[in-house]
Amino acid sequence: MSAPTTGPNLDQLSPERRALVERLMQQRRAQATPKAPAAPAAPSGRPTGLAVSLFFFSADLDDAPADKYDLVLRCAELADELGLHAVWVPERHFNPFGAPYPAPAVLLAAIASRTRRIGLRAGSVVLPLHDPLLVAEEWGVLDAISRGRVALSLASGWHADDFVLNPDGYERRKALLTEQLAELRTLWEGGSSQRVGPQGRMIETRTYPRPARPLETWLTSSGNPETWRTAGTLDQNVLTALLEQSVDDIAGKVALYRQARAEAGHTADDRQITCMLHTHIAERTEDVVPRVHGPLGRYLSAHMNLFEKFAANQDIGVRPEEVTEADRALLLEHGIQRYLRQSGLFGTVETALPMVDRLVAAGVTELGCLVDFGLPDEQVFECVRQLGALQQRVRDRAEGSS
């Protein structure tokens, strides 16, 4: 399917936003210039057919992070052996929900030391909380250690409390993300950043180590259509989730994304749409619901606590103090059933295939299977092994239809 070659309507943008978009488009065109291949053989580009990856985002209500990290590392080793595509870990701060994951680069460095080929993904780096100079340095080290297996999804952030790390950045966090993305790409590709030093002196700064390949990036969107349009205009991959949207919703946003890419003149069919979804694939169908009902309920309850903390500081029409225990129980059971029936990947390899097909039809190219929501370790390992079988089943079907 061909796309129009006309550029985006930049006249509607402010001069500052127009300059940023033009700068990013120039960088994307520069990346299309053939370069000598990098040494590592990592799954950095778009995979052939649907990719199956692991995603970690556990709560830590019992404050036992060592056990959580041991599970992540052992799952990553197993996924590497089974040929899964990538391992995703988030960036979360100051709350038990996602507590083991304040420093994705550190955790992925540990994973890099115990794996050989699997991709190492941040889902996501909240870029407005950080200085791009330090992001380029930190992730450049990890890219070198892993021999080119690093990729980042970037987010603007949503919880005001996180911005104690950068209080001035909260109100303009979305614009700041776009600006910092441009700077990060410049630094990653060996360019410089002009910064004000002591006594007001301007300093031209470059970061090291210098990566051997372009930085593969996603923009994270839990559902905002404008983020999808921005990602399309800037020719970014997209990381999304089945949290507050349906598969049909994703399909509609993929259409917006593709339209924005076409209007911006991006014609290559090489972008990825990664969808995170809660997952438990077992050997037997009858094992799934009894296993996941309790852990998933506790996990969603922790997420509800985070949302209540957010709602208490925002004018969104929700008063947490008015939510009764009966209300919470009803909401939790509704959430559990929603995930089991339409917003997760639960069952066996065969019974999961219809959901996989729906996601592919919606435009998803990679599944980010969130497996660490509280099940016993052996059941999580069983799920990872079954995801290896699912990846192979998907590949076999693709080869059979070609």
Helix vs. strand class:
alpha/beta
Under CATH, the homologous superfamily reads Luciferase-like domain
Which sequence of strands runs across the widest sheet? 1-2-3-4-7-8-9-11
Low-confidence segments: 1-8, 29-44, 305-320
Number of strands: 11
The percent range for strand residues is: 5-15%
**At the third CATH level, what is the topology name?**
TIM Barrel
Give me the Rg, rounded: 21 Å
Q: Can you write the helix and strand succession as a string?
A: HEHEHEHEHEEEHEHEHHEHEH
- Count of individual helical segments: 11
List the helices and strands and how they pair.
Blueprint (H helix, E strand, L loop, with lengths): L14 H17 L19 E5 L9 H18 L3 E4 L14 H10 L5 E8 L5 H14 L4 E6 L17 H16 L4 E4 L5 E4 L11 E4 L4 H9 L3 E5 L5 H17 L9 E9 L6 H25 L12 H19 E4 L1 H14 L3 E5 L6 H25 L1
Parallel strand pairs: 1-2, 1-11, 2-3, 3-4, 4-7, 7-8, 8-9, 9-10, 9-11
Antiparallel strand pairs: 5-6
Pfam family, one: Bac_luciferase
InterPro entries: Bact_Lucif_Oxidored (IPR050766), Biosynth_lucif-like_mOase_dom (IPR024011), Luciferase-like_dom (IPR011251), Luciferase-like_sf (IPR036661)
Organism: Micromonospora maritima
Q: How does this structure look, described?
A:
The protein is α/β, with parallel strands linked by helices. 46% of the residues lie in helices and 14% in strands. It has eleven helices and eleven strands. It has an eight-stranded parallel barrel with strand order 1-2-3-4-7-8-9-11, surrounded by seven helices. Strands 5-6 form a two-stranded antiparallel ribbon. Helix 2 links the parallel strand 1 and strand 2. The protein is globular, with a radius of gyration of 21 Å. The protein starts with 14 loop residues before the first helix and ends with a helix. It holds the Pfam family Bac_luciferase. It comes from Micromonospora maritima.
